[in-house]
From TrEMBL:
The gene is ccsA. The lineage of its organism: Bacteria, Bacillati, Cyanobacteriota, Cyanophyceae, Oscillatoriophycideae. Keywords: Cytochrome c-type biogenesis, Membrane, Thylakoid, Transmembrane, Transmembrane helix. Required during biogenesis of c-type cytochromes (cytochrome c6 and cytochrome f) at the step of heme attachment. The keyword DNA-binding does not apply. The chain crosses the membrane at residues 12-28, 35-58, 70-89, 96-115, 135-163, 229-248, 263-278, 290-311. May interact with Ccs1. It comes from cyanobacterium endosymbiont of Braarudosphaera bigelowii. This is Cytochrome c biogenesis protein CcsA. Residues 68-315 form the Cytochrome c assembly protein domain. It is a multi-pass membrane protein.
Length: 321
């Protein structure tokens, strides 16, 4: 009983800390003069991450297996993965906007898990025979980490689209050959190209410029971050799909059965494969790949949650149907 009380406290506390952290990030973004707000937001993100990790650890001790056997546990694991990813990226590049656009997603996930799920879906229960396998940790954890990275990368692309609005953006050189994050210094083009701005030395152009240099710098960083984070999540997704196929063959005697979950995993893989291919295509830079990444954000959610709740396949939780 004490463990149940602890879990209830941890899931509610993680939600409220993420809600407060989101508001702090938003205030810090709206009022840049409040220079200590980003640090406070990062602190809140770390606290929320530790609360979720403690909750998952308690579930692990309670059930005796890796806490990814039901929707409640996987939602909190996803929220933990998202907060971990954004905190690492934020510490590397120092852009508080990452937390401002990412924490609402983690907060919404914890709210859904804490408030909306029926109580019987939150209870830790013995594993069904098909889940009593080492593949549970190997396949599901890798898939959830890939979802986390792909969601954060896609949100960066959506933020890029919002900042650049309807501007004609072309960021050539942002995908390959840079080796690291680009210097964000700006310098003006010659007068015969007065509507164009050159970003650093990587042949990255932003045309039809109606944005401030600060917004251009931020858009450039978000575009680069999106590409690199998705570039991390895509191999994880590939490994997770392969591991899932091997596990399916072991459990059900078939590597691939076109289950709704498997189908949408393939669709998600194809969307992000198209995005990564577009990023190394000369005429596909800037907004068009970002739109693909934004579509990938929707595909991940359908793959993870949509088919689980609404489908009738082997991976379905069957809450709505």
């Amino acid at each position: 009983m004490d463990l149940v009380i602890l879990e209830n406290f941890l899931d509610n506390a993680s939600f409220f800390v993420l809600l407060l952290t989101m508001l702090i990030y938003w205030i810090g973004t709206a009022f840049p003069s409040l220079t200590w707000f980003p640090t406070l937001g990062t602190t809140g993100g770390i606290i929320a991450n530790l609360l979720i990790a403690t909750l998952l650890g308690a579930r692990w001790l309670e059930g005796g297996y890796f806490p990814l056997s039901n929707l409640y546990e996987s939602l909190f694991f996803l929220a933990w993965g998202i907060t971990t990813t954004y905190l690492i990226v934020e510490s590397m590049v120092g852009i508080s906007l990452i937390g401002a656009v990412t924490t609402p997603i983690a907060m919404a996930i914890t709210a859904f898990a804490t408030i909306s799920l029926p109580s019987d879906m939150r209870v830790s229960s013995p594993l069904v025979p098909a889940l009593k396998s080492n593949w549970l940790m190997m396949h599901v954890s890798v898939m959830m980490l890939s979802y986390s990275a792909l969601m954060v990368g896609s949100v960066m692309a959506i933020a890029f689209l919002i900042i650049t609005r309807d501007q004609d953006i072309s960021l050539r050189g942002s995908s390959v050959g840079t080796g690291s994050y680009r210097n964000s210094s700006l310098k003006e083009f010659p007068k015969n190209h007065e509507k164009e701005i050159l970003l650093n030395t990587n042949d990255a152009f932003i045309t039809k410029n109606n944005l401030s240099p600060q917004h251009l710098n931020l858009a450039d960083k978000l575009d680069n971050l999106s590409y690199r984070i998705i570039g991390l999540g895509f191999p994880l997704l590939t490994i997770g799909i392969i591991a899932g196929a091997v596990w399916a063959n072991e459990a059900w005697g078939s590597y691939w059965s076109w289950d709704p979950k498997e189908t949408w995993a393939l669709i998600t893989w194809l969307v992000f494969a198209a995005y990564l291919h577009a990023r190394i295509t000369k005429d596909w830079q800037g907004r068009r790949p970002a739109i693909l990444a934004a579509g990938g954000f929707i595909a991940v959610w359908v793959c993870y949650l949509g088919v689980n709740l609404l489908g009738n396949g082997l991976h379905s939780y069957g809450w709505f149907l």
